[in-house]
Recover the amino acids of this structure.
């Protein structure tokens, strides 16, 4: 049996571990476009900000992969999947034949069309370690003191924070009326925006970059509002799209991401997909979507790995969620927390420092937001995943001492005794 | 009102250096005696609220707490003790009957403590129980006067006599009747599980049978008392024996009253009465006014249980105990229970508990004597209850004529009870005499059962040692064997009633 | 994995004394003498066990060291890992960057933050060094019991 895994992100590596749990014999080949293997992508902003060492970038090491008998081909890009020949073609033209294939190719940064963007130094996207090296090198070599981050999403904010740690003054430009428009609601966004501002970060909303000026290197950006901001650096962080273009015409069904069933298998038997490139169902609303977050990638990767190795494991679906500490403010957003409408029952709590919100639909918890006081947020995540009827305790959800003690006795008992699986699968 | 101001009975001393402010004592006291002062950052006790149950002392992780008797309650007087004065103050205040719990608290003479045991020397050999068989098993129930045997065709000897139903006790100690309501379910489960492990019996008391105990039927005696709570044919057949309770050592001659507010859903279910109604146990059984009436009930129960289960009768030890016991045996009781003046209770008027009844030592001696004289000792087993504290008491009781003993207080002490005598308040910190879910869970029946088993095993070992020393290899050979007893410091007429010789007098 | 040790929580026997909490603190400090700890240790660590209370229900809750642990899947740094010797999930503080993904996904809500250090507070490791968990040993009513489970 020959397993080929494309992509060395969390989905790919989890799949490998799952395969090895079941099948110690089969040949496992890991092909990745990355130069570094086994490092954690979300850590690149921490690396840039000097908050993590290079050694600690790795959450799995290449040695470990070799130990479990995995052939690693790094800096190798897969350009085609030949479904009929059951092979992938790399950028060198080499064909690698597989019995089972996992596409865990992740996403790639989306770059909009902006006038004057091409052929200038000082403009970066920021999704890989190599990007980090380039940005760090550029900032240090040029002695950059001002930067613009286009995009007020999680990556944008973490990038801004890292640049500020390097002593760079940052302006964030977000096209929506507030930062983190997807992840958080208005109130939470405001709180985070305020925290960023206290760190000296300028936040411009309802605006976007329409032109980049400068000769060889960037010198300023012009916003739609007409405002011009001098800057030595532009980081474009307006989002990541599933990296699926290379599958065009391959016969593998793709919507926004690669369509998979609950075994993480694509329409082509023996070809699987997992992680940021895969599209599966949202556990709460039942819609197909790409949920590009770490835990989902790990969970999907594992399911794919088990199934590739011959077990029959099903993935129940997941929910969007994110936790991040920005400008010293820890935040958590789980499920469908930024919603409005009569069908939703919304409870909120706020004082000067803390903001908490829970969203209930049909007596079930479907979303929650926590700012500052995030301890025990996981209980809410569990309740959303479990779809537990919350009518007996919904009034208590935001009580200071809310905990398992308020849950129905039988449910709690099963949970504590480990009979219930409400874990991310 | 100053005239009714009663000094605290206990002082809770707290070594502030040792106190680590874990606040376990504050959290745990069901009487709210301990409290934390946020400003002073210290833990204090309102001594007046302390009942002396020692729970906080036991739970304190640094031994910072000492619960002690208040030495300066009221001026110490020989006749008018603090207790008397306080009782008068309370009654002057309330006009009510004083309630109390557990066993008699008057310093009556303990005859057990004036009886010593014999051992073998030179002329008869003692037995080492570790090397030789030692039988402490006994059977309760009616025994035959003689056994008829017959031989079958192949020459095998067969028993022709039909043997009456028996209770088989691996140790001659049972757990006495304590009802669901007076004690918690966890306490009952502890008793039940221990009885099962050791091979003896616990008793449901008069409160009916909680469903959680049904599976302990083969180690259970079900009680039928004057209130007939929870009694139906299933109940009668649920255990291994049925016990008719006429009286109880702690409160001879009076009934019981469980106030309606204590009749919760669970209690109502087992007692088979509506939630919130008072559970009244009349003083007498209203269908028993004579030995003949008792016989009717005994046989009604025997009919209902198809003569498969021994039926016992329990009475409090009163002045006329011997002839009453004889009547009970003649009425058809397979075993009788005599509960002495030190018998415990969940709630009783203090005046009754402390002053009514007779010491069990006399009661068992005269009952055994009377039954022998009438030639009916074999017709019923005699179980002794009320104040059995240790294996020596068990041995002495058996040597005075008992077949086995019941222990109540001793069992509760094994479960944590410190005899604060406040069972009637229903706030037992040890989780025994309470139905408050916050408190009942403090008694983990696994721990409870383990401790009770330990207690019975320890006593079993000690009984074997003593028997061996006496040169006896079976507990049944000790029964009524008063030659093994001698009195120390007893008057002649007391010795005569007990049927024992004074220490120093040979056989 | 065979014979993984777990702490069984029995809420029906928990009396809410919270002695588990102070025993946990003592175990972290590394001495059993509570008086000494209270008197002379300047900054006491937080207990790694949470006692939840409502009405008559109380129970002590510490990391369940789940077989299929969400926190392991959510950790993007590899800081959260399973100790192969004890089966307990432990945190490598060196690697933790404080992204709080583990806090977000723990269904028991028992992953605690060390707010000062901006790291996951080293979580319950079943007292790996001590041998047996202090909370279990100190529980006066066996509401916490150490068991071995086969998985």
């Amino acid at each position: 049996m020959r397993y080929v895994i494309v992509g060395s992100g969390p989905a790919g590596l989890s799949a490998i571990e799952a395969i090895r749990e079941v099948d110690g014999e089969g040949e496992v080949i890991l092909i990745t476009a990355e130069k570094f293997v086994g490092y954690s992508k979300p850590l690149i902003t921490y690396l840039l900000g000097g908050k993590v060492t290079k050694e600690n970038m790795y959450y799995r090491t290449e040695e470990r992969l070799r130990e479990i008998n995995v052939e690693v081909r790094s800096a190798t890009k897969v350009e085609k999947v030949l479904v009929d020949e059951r092979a992938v073609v790399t950028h060198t033209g080499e064909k690698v034949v597989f019995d089972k294939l996992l596409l865990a190719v992740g996403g790639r940064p989306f770059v909009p069309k902006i006038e004057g963007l091409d052929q200038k130094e000082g403009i970066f996207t920021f999704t890989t370690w190599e990007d980090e090296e380039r940005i760090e090198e550029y900032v240090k070599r040029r002695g950059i003191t001002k930067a613009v981050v286009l995009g007020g999403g999680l990556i944008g904010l973490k990038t801004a924070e890292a640049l500020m740690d390097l002593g760079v003054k940052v302006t964030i430009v977000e096209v929506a009326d507030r930062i983190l428009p997807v992840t958080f609601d208005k109130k939470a966004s405001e709180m985070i925006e305020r925290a960023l501002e206290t760190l000296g970060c300028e936040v411009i909303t309802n605006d976007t970059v329409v032109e980049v000026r400068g000769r060889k290197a960037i010198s300023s950006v012009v916003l739609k509002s007409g405002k011009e901001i001098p800057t030595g650096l532009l980081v474009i962080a307006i989002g990541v799209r599933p990296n699926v273009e290379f599958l065009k015409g391959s016969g593998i069904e793709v919507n926004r991401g690669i369509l998979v069933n609950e075994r993480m298998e694509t329409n082509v038997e023996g070809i699987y997909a997992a992680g940021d490139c895969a599209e599966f169902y949202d556990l709460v609303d039942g819609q197909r979507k790409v949920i590009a977050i770490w835990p989902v990638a790990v969970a999907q990767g594992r399911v794919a790995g088990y199934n590739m190795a011959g077990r029959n494991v099903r993935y129940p679906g997941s929910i969007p969620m994110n936790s991040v500490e920005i400008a010293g403010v820890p935040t958590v957003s789980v499920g469908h927390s930024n919603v409005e409408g009569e069908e939703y029952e919304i409870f909120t709590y706020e004082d000067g420092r803390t903001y908490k919100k829970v969203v209930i639909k049909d007596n079930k918890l479907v979303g929650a937001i926590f700012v500052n006081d995030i301890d025990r947020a996981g209980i809410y995540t569990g309740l959303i995943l479990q779809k537990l009827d919350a009518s007996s305790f919904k009034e208590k959800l935001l009580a200071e001492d809310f905990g398992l003690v308020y849950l129905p006795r039988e449910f709690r008992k099963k949970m504590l005794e480990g009979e219930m699986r409400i874990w991310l699968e | 009102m100053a005239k009714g101001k009663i000094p605290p009975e206990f002082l809770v001393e707290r070594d502030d250096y040792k106190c680590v402010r874990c606040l376990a004592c504050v959290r745990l006291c069901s009487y709210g005696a301990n409290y934390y002062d946020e400003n002073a950052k210290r833990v204090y006790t309102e001594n007046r609220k302390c009942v002396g149950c020692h729970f906080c002392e036991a739970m304190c992780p640094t031994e910072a707490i000492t619960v002690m008797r208040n030495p300066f309650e009221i001026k110490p007087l020989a006749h008018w003790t603090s207790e008397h004065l306080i009782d008068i103050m309370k009654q002057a205040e309330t006009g009510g009957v004083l309630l109390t719990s557990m066993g008699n608290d008057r310093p009556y003479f303990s005859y057990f403590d004036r009886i010593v045991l014999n051992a073998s020397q030179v002329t008869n050999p003692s037995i080492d129980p570790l090397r030789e068989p030692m039988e402490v098993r006994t059977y309760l129930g009616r025994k035959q006067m003689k056994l008829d045997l017959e031989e079958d065709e192949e020459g095998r000897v067969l028993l022709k006599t039909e043997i009456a139903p028996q209770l088989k006790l691996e140790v001659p100690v049972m757990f006495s009747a304590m009802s669901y309501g007076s004690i918690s379910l966890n306490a009952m489960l502890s008793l039940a599980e221990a009885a099962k492990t050791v091979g003896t019996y616990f008793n449901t008391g008069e409160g009916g049978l909680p469903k959680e105990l049904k599976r302990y039927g083969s180690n259970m005696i079900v009680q039928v008392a004057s209130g007939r709570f929870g009694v139906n044919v299933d109940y009668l057949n649920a255990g291994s024996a049925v016990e008719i309770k006429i009286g109880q050592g702690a409160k001879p001659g009076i009934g019981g009253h469980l106030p309606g507010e204590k009749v919760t859903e669970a209690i109502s279910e087992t007692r088979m009465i509506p939630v919130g109604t008072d559970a009244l146990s009349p003083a007498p059984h209203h269908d028993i006014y004579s030995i003949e009436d008792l016989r009717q009930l005994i046989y009604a129960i025997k009919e209902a249980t198809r003569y498969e289960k021994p039926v016992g009768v329990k009475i409090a030890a009163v002045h006329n105990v011997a002839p009453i016991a004889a009547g009970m045996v003649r009425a058809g009781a397979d075993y009788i229970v005599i509960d002495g003046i030190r018998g415990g209770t969940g709630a009783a008027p203090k005046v009754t508990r402390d002053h009514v009844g007779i010491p069990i030592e006399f009661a068992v001696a005269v009952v055994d004597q009377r039954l022998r004289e009438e030639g009916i000792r074999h017709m019923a087993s005699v179980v002794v209850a009320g104040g059995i504290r240790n294996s020596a008491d068990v041995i002495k009781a058996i040597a005075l004529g008992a077949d086995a003993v019941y222990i109540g207080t001793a069992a509760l002490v094994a479960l944590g009870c410190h005899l604060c005598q406040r069972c009637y308040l229903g706030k037992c910190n040890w989780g025994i005499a309470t139905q408050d879910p916050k408190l009942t869970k403090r008694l983990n029946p696994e721990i409870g059962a383990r401790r009770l088993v330990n207690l019975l095993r320890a006593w079993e070992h000690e009984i074997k040692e003593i028997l061996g020393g006496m040169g006896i290899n079976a507990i049944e050979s000790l029964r009524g064997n008063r030659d093994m007893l001698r009195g120390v410091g007893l008057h002649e007429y007391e010795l005569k009633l007990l049927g024992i010789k004074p220490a120093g007098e040979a056989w | 994995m065979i014979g993984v040790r777990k702490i069984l929580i029995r809420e029906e026997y928990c009396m809410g004394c919270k002695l588990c909490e102070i025993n946990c603190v003592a175990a972290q400090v590394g001495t059993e003498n509570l008086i000494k700890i209270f008197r002379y240790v300047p900054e006491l660590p937080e207990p790694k066990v949470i006692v939840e209370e409502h009405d008559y229900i109380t129970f002590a809750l510490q990391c369940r060291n789940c077989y299929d642990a969400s926190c392991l899947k959510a950790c993007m740094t590899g800081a959260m890992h399973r100790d192969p010797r004890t089966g307990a999930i432990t945190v490598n503080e060196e690697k933790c960057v404080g992204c709080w993904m583990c806090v977000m996904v723990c269904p028991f809500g028992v992953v605690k933050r060390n707010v000062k250090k901006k790291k996951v507070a080293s979580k319950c490791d079943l007292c790996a060094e001590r041998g047996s968990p202090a909370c279990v040993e100190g529980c006066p009513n066996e509401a916490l019991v150490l068991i071995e489970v086969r998985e």
Summary: The beta strands of chain C are 4-9, 50-54, 57-61, 80-82, 89-91, 113-114, 119-120, 144-149.
